[in-house]
Amino acid sequence: MKYCTMLLVLASWLAGPEAHAQAPFFLPDPLVEQVRAPATGRFALELRSVQVRTKITGASATTQLDQVFFNPGQRSFEGYYYYPLPPGSSIGKFTMYINGQETPGELLDAKKAKEIYEDILRRRKDPALLEYLGRDLLRVRIFPVPARATQRVVLHYTHSLIRENGTTEYVLPFQQGGEKLRPIGRVGIAIELESTAPLKNIYCPTHKLEITRIDDHHATLGFEGEQVKPEHDLKLYFSSNKAELDLSLLDFRQEGEEGFFFLNLSPGLAKRAAVIDKDITFVLDASGSMAGEKMAQAQRALSFCINNLNRGDRFNIVRFSTEASALFPQLEAATTTKMAEAERYLQSLKAIGGTNIEEALELALGGDRASERPHFVVFLTDGKPTIGETGTAPLLAKVKSQNPDQTRIFTFGIGSKLNTHLLDQLTQMTNAYRTYVEPSEDIEVKVSDFFTKVSSPILTDLEIEFSSDLGVSEVYPKQLPELFKGNTLNLLGRYRGSGKGQVILRGKVNGKPVRYAYPVTLQSKATTYDFIPPLWATRVVGYLLEQIRLQGQEQELVDEVVRLSKQYGIITPYTSYLILEDEQQLIGQGQLRPEETLFFGNQTQGAQKFREEISTEYEISMNKVAGVESVRASEEVQTMNQNQYLSQARTGESRLQYHDQQGKQRNWTDDLRYVAGRASYRQGEQWIDANTQLSANRSLRVRRIQFNSTAYRRFVEENPDQMDFLALGRNVRFVNRGEIIEIYE
């Protein structure tokens, strides 16, 4: 369900019939129109800032929304402020401050609100309001907003939260309606979360919130940004219970299609759960290229890690340059004496000589280790192997043969003069992950942040199994990592069956097997959590691009990347190139008309230049094994492969700029919206549902309906589940119940 940050319907002496476009938007007040005819012109009140403070206690949320508007016109406005309420709302307190005076608000029920929406739609032809049919409204009379001045509006409301399958949902109305998005100048969001039962999963797919767990029952969440596109409502999900390890599951499924699920595992802060003793070997590049500040930062980073080892951990340090050597003959317990010795050793290291990666990893993976303890290797380097085995394939083969226990190798690549394919495949084959540190970044910050997250394992050797009748498939990640204290593990996948089933999780605690069983229900139709399909698709595309980078381009992989990217809006510099190539080929084969392309039908000079740039970037990024482009591609593909936020479906968005026919700078992602779990694209004045281009749908019958006609209003009444498509604009083409609906002016 979608809501707008606000609907501000203001009477304007200047606003003409076209001044409605988006929220906030303006419509002439009929009373004012009778006195003074509006002049022509189109503009919108600017939303300069949004500050939100929310307190969630159990199943209730109290929100304070503080907004600052700016009137760019030459005359004052007056009219009404409308706010569509989240589901389950009850007004505990509502206040609005206008010009320093508290103004009461009027609560309109859904029936009265529907009359207002339909009246605006008839008179002003603004389909954006269709998203809010069936919602209660708050309405407040606005005093004149002075010309070229700001107006602050503060409102408070309380609403009850929805809980399904053990997961509670909080929605902050934030999304703008209409055909175009206007960035909000500044956004600040602060959420306090309190629960009587211990908090487990805390997850926000729409915005990258900073989550701080204070204790088992309290957490704070925050977000700050400038020029923020209001393209998604903020959606927060959390669970709370006394279970040692919590599992929550959300699903999305269109009727008659396979479904998607999002599964989250969390031990919370897990005070009662035993932290597993671990072995960890720090491998530090001490070659000549590390001399100076890089070496000093790396020493401080490893000093932080060693001083934050848990009681019961064992550790060692391997330094390497022309040769490799270890601090201790074998892993040593993290006692005060050994940690002090390690500190002195770190400070004595000097950067000199070549880069013998083969010998360093052989030393790190050798030795006598207890099989029941997890062993991690943290590997820091800034160069390519220059001594010993230097070939990528032979070196990887040696590491694999020396690592029968699948020790995780977490790599930190410093700078760009290194072999990214080697580091990436080291992490891929050991089910770890890599981090790259740019010259301007602090090594210490990145390493210490990593170590804080992985310092306390709760469960190792994870395996997950679903009831066979649920028909679960295509689960990502394909291999499960360890589960750490205070962290969560999420999985995304598909399902064919429905009904009640079971999820079995197996793992080890200090070498002893454990088993958890969770009842789950997957539905035959579930359309609330429409963020799940693009999240799943982003993760799959990231995995496939990883294979293309490291193993070479196979046509079947490329075809799948193109299909998923089109359908679910995975628009990045790499997928853009592949989509472009595919659509040009379809046009050449007569299978696609230029006007039916989803994203790249624009033939402007700026678009042509973009095509050339994106083609070059793809070739370099996917083939080079070193350099800035290779490092960037590695980081961005891994981000997609591990994605948790909708924004990561557009990784590399800043490089998708072009100039339109009017010379204005635009971004290809400006013409993308997520609707009903898939992508819709703007082509000229028309919005096109990605599903219309699927080969299975190209032969569907097309039903054309004129916007705002009797047939259109009848369609609105009969198809309430299609409001999100209709709200895109007055020219929309989408798949609905076995036919293509084409709305036209």
Numbering strands along the chain, what is their spatial order in the largest sheet?
5-10-3-2-13-16-15
Number of helices: 15
Oligomer: single chain
Structural class: alpha+beta
The amount of helix comes to: 10-25%
What average pLDDT do the residues reach? 85
| Alpha carbon gyration radius | 28 Å
Distance between the termini: 26 Å
Largest sheet: 7 strands, mixed
**Low-pLDDT sequence parts:** 1-6, 9-43
- The tally of strands reads 40
Shape: globular
Strand content range: 25-35%
Structure, explained:
Helix 9 runs antiparallel to helix 13. The protein starts with 6 loop residues before the first strand and ends with a strand. Strand 25, helix 7 and strand 26 form a beta-alpha-beta unit. With 745 residues, the protein is α+β, with helices and mostly antiparallel strands.
